[in-house]
Amino acid sequence: MLKTRVIPTLLWKNHGLVKGVGFNSWRRVGTVLPAIKVYDLREVDEMIVVDITATQDGHDPDYESIEEFSQACFVPLTVGGGVRSVEHIRLLLRAGADKVAINSAAFTNQELVRKASDSFGSQCVVISVDARKNSSGQYECMSHAGTQPTGREPAAWALEMERAGAGEILITSIQRDGTMEGYDLDLVRSVSDAVSIPVIASGGAGNYVHMWEAISEGRASAVAAASIFHFTQQTPMEAKQYLRSRGVPVRHAL
Prior knowledge:
The protein is an alpha/beta fold. It has one domain: TIM Barrel, CATH 3.20.20. It has eleven helices and twelve strands. It has helices at 32-40, 54-57, 63-72, 86-95, 104-108, 110-120, 154-164, 185-194, 208-216, 227-231, 236-245; strands at 5-13, 16-21, 24-30, 47-51, 77-80, 99-102, 125-133, 139-143, 148-149, 168-173, 199-202, 222-225. It has an eight-stranded parallel β-barrel, surrounded by seven helices. The protein is globular and about 45 Å long.
């Protein structure tokens, strides 16, 4: 049986580690490299590092920083932000990334996902989907750090990306992001039910019960979180211990 993963998300802006609410009001909470070293000691399964300004500013990924991060990271590392070409992916993998997250570029260039999967294998292609619920209660994918509507429904888009060659989906609720009020279980479940590849739930974790709900009710394969680890005393190791106590298979939960 596949193990359920607990994954810290590190949002990176202008060389600083930041966290906001609803993809806004970014607050500096430290620097990336020390956080990576701490998480390495806390039995995390993977880490996700995203440059949240790269796409908005139109700059390429910072390969030098990613190389520095990867040298301190001894678990699989997913890197996102500013990924617009196969060459970007190639250079990120060369810099030490294990997986590359693609978000905004996929909406205008689906061939990028196909080429990436063909060139490097689907296992390293993560499609990051940021979704917002509108006034009529419908979910819509948003691009460019949650600022631009795409007209795409998340579950249908995730399935399209799976067919294009994606190996994993990272689904984030923009409205739950940073609130610590719990994952949007309807959103997570709709995406999980639509695809056969692993789905990582993101946006809203405030305690270990929320993580268990994302897995048991949202049918997620993994849970990603940031605020719970930045602003509370809760840890990834304790999260896995709790999940194991609820019958969820995890790695190294003592």
